[in-house]
Amino acid sequence: MKQSPTVLLTGGAGFIGSHIAAELALAGHEPVILDNLCNSKIGVLDRLSSIIGRSLRFIQGDIRDVELVKHTLATHHVQSVIHLAGLKAVGDSVKEPLAYYDNNVVGTLRLLEAMHACNVRSIVFSSSATVYGNPDRLPLRESHPLSTTNPYGQTKLVIEEMLRDLHRSDSRWHICMLRYFNPIGAHASGMIGEDPNGVPTNLMPFVQRVAAGELKELPVWGNDYDTPDGTGVRDYIHVVDLATGHMRAMEKLESMGCEAINLGTGLGSSVLDVVRTFERVNGVRIPLAIKARRPGDVPACYADPSIAFERLGWKTQRTLDDMCRDAWTWQQFSATLGG
Ligand SMILES: NC(=O)c1ccc[n+]([C@@H]2O[C@H](COP(=O)([O-])OP(=O)(O)OC[C@H]3O[C@@H](n4cnc5c(N)ncnc54)[C@H](O)[C@@H]3O)[C@@H](O)[C@H]2O)c1
Prior knowledge:
This protein is of the alpha/beta class. The protein has 11 helices and 14 strands.
């Protein structure tokens, strides 16, 4: 029986990957998810099925297992890969750098080997604005100098360099490296979203848990930065906008060489902007605890997203109000899920 061309989604059970899976499937693409579930739960698949109205193909496995990846690429007639699988906690990467190099760098290397062996040479890679290090000017453009401040960022930088070398060696590869700014929010259905283990380190999951009464107060790491209200400014992007950016990139891959593209809104919002918006939109209170600056945090970071518009015809549609509303809907739904 002839099958339609598919896209392999590594890390597709995770926060961003599950939203990409939903957008791809709703647009008529055929995603196949490969995930070892080291930072996600199997239950997300049933919830994805409810959103999409059909079940998705899922393989539980590791991207470092070359034989498994080759078998998956061949059996499912995969034409392109969206590669999100990886570890992403900056603090953990400082404590366990080898685990990060192994999972992220070696994992990507093994994935690329398997793709090459199967003649699949189109890949969208999850990079990050972390590759801009401590920015000395804003907004951040793709041409700005690259550097990193921690092992997690270093893994992204090494992978970007590996991908550029690969394309230089063989122009049959089509590679798009998407540099995400700060993805937050959740699917409008409230059925999938970010579900970190333990105490969250990112702003929005922390805000959600304080709003739900699971945590007492939100620590604000520094209110004396040179920003309009003194708190750190970031470029928050709705995860569904991020997902549609991946779909546009995948659809354009065949016309690309090896390109890096920012996915952000171009707007900076401070910690207090996010907190006040969350309180207003959802009618909740977020008690704050002002703390000292955290080492390594930059005052402000936001994208110039114009290349994404020029190359992909993509720009964000959703506002900070949408991000805060959808994150809260997800928080309330996820509280009903249990372990
Ligand atoms: N969330 C962010 O703020 C952010 C920002 C920039 C870049 N990124 C990158 O985007 C990607 C996805 O991030 P996310 O927030 O969805 O994280 P996530 O942890 O929710 O998702 C990653 C998924 O990859 C899986 N995974 C990890 N290692 C694997 C392996 N070796 N084999 C198979 N599966 C594996 C995990 O089980 C998880 O489901 C990551 O590469 C991350 O570095 C995330």
